[in-house]
Write a structure and sequence with these properties.
BAR_dom, 284 residues, mainly alpha, 9 helices, AH/BAR_dom_sf
């Protein structure tokens, strides 16, 4: 195996030079190159964007899937790019519909109570399907674009910022060596290194600045994602409201009929005084 010892030595020398410069800046308050205010504002906006976007993503994920175990499992399988069929996993509304349907069949759909259970179960099943469609659409139109931004553009920005900080340390280390140079030869060598470091630093500043200015485009894209999310919510809740209104109208007649034992209302006299007895009646 061939090793480029010169390259390894150069990288090691650069690493120790950066470490020395960082230590002097941290503990000895050595001079450091400052970035212009506009660039600093771009960096702060990027940090705030990442912070709030991660929080937003986490909250939307929790809203769409409150169960943390299932949520983490789904992310785990997605990260590994494994295919797993989630069609068999019922949501809470579908579980409720199944329980009501089973109870309705047990009591008999011809009885008032059993019939009501079956009708409610059918609506809850439709609500569960509507919720499933809402969650799926929200994940594809809102969650995934936001996650791609964090795992793509944002990671690239952080990577280039790290490179920029390294170039800045190299530049300041060269400035420090130039100040400490005693001979003409050492000054000439330090000046040559400084010119190279300055050029690399300026180039990296432009690369990072270009990426940071792209944050505005990310904001515009996420704004569209949020609008889509609101539209999906509005459609889902409107659909759910209509389903429940139809169910309420369907049940209102049967639930108010006096012959249904569970829902029959006692007369005021009976409720206060108990059963009314006529002369000759025996208490049993």
């Amino acid at each position: 195996m061939d090793f480029n010892f010169k390259k390894i030595a150069t990288e090691a020398g650069g690493f120790f030079s950066r470490a020395k410069q960082y230590t002097e800046e941290t503990f000895l308050k050595a001079e450091r190159t400052d970035l212009d205010p506009h660039f600093e504002n771009l960096l702060q906006r990027a940090d705030k964007t990442e912070e709030h976007t991660r929080r937003l993503l986490s909250c939307i994920e929790s809203y769409l899937q409150p169960n943390p175990t299932i949520r983490m499992e789904e992310v785990f399988y997605e990260k590994l790019e494994l295919k797993k069929d989630h069609a068999g996993r019922m949501n809470n509304l579908e579980l409720l519909a199944q329980a009501m349907s089973d109870a309705g069949e047990e009591f008999g759909s011809t009885t008032p109570y059993g019939s009501a259970l079956v009708k409610i179960a059918q609506t809850e099943q439709k609500l569960g399907q509507a919720e499933r469609e809402f969650v799926t659409s929200s994940a594809s139109q809102t969650l995934l674009p936001i996650r791609r931004f964090l795992e793509g553009d944002m990671k690239t920005i952080q990577k280039e910022r790290k490179v920029l900080n390294g170039k800045r340390l190299d530049l300041d280390a060269c400035k420090s060596r130039l100040r400490k140079a005693k001979t003409v030869e050492s000054q000439a060598a330090a000046e040559a290194d400084l010119r190279v470091a300055q050029a690399e630093f300026d180039k990296q500043v432009e690369i990072t600045k270009l990426l940071l200015e792209g944050i505005q485009t990310a904001h515009n894209n996420q704004l569209k994602c949020l609008r889509d999310f609101v539209d999906l919510q509005m459609s889902y809740f409107a659909q759910a409201h209509q389903m429940m209104a139809d169910l309420q109208r369907e049940l209102s007649g049967s639930l108010s009929e006096p012959h249904i034992g569970l829902f029959a209302k006692a007369s005021p006299n009976t409720a206060r005084n108990g059963p009314v007895l006529t002369p000759g009646d025996d208490l049993k």
